[in-house]
């Protein structure tokens, strides 16, 4: 194993996967709405979706999808529609005492999986990382598999940190007006992140 390449790969992975994106904006919002424990089902669904997307990319199927622009367009539309819905749900979330009773359907494991597996930005990040930095020399298959495992591990660590940031925001004692402003801000953050990722 090339330790220098491994270090560079991990640094690049943390930078790419930990930078602002629709998934991270969604994690912060879900953590804010449901707390750390309540947000775990969404987190797990998202991780499964992202791991699937990374696996598809590692298997070379993303290149096949990229050959069919209509398939990528459908994925982008599906992710965008969901993110618009998510942004609305976050911005219009109840505040004050009713906020604690709100379930937040947008935080289901299925919703997290959908975002993870249809996110074109994630596919591009995975393709970029998997195509560079040879960590295991002499075996392309072993190198790709190792990088897939490393990507999944990085995603889990980075995303749980962002979920915790959202949960931390939930613990702040805010007035109803401040809560509403925060909810709207988080909703707009999801829309902006989606726009930057998909435009």
What's the gyration radius in Å?
18 Å
Q: Which stretches are poorly predicted, pLDDT < 50 over at least 5 residues?
A: none
Number of DSSP strands? 0
> Number of helical runs?
9
Q: Can you put this structure into words, describing what you see?
A:
Helix 2 packs across helix 6 and helix 2 crosses helix 7. The longest helix is centred in the first third of the chain and has 37 residues. It is built from 9 helices and no strands. With 199 residues, it is an all-alpha fold. The protein starts with a helix and ends with a helix. The mean pLDDT is 81. It is globular, with a radius of gyration of 18 Å.
Name the descriptors.
9 helices, 199 residues, mainly alpha
Topology:
Elements: H1 3-18, H2 22-58, H3 61-66, H4 69-91, H5 97-101, H6 109-117, H7 120-130, H8 140-170, H9 176-198
Helix pairs in contact: 1-8, 2-4, 2-6, 2-7, 2-8, 2-9, 4-9
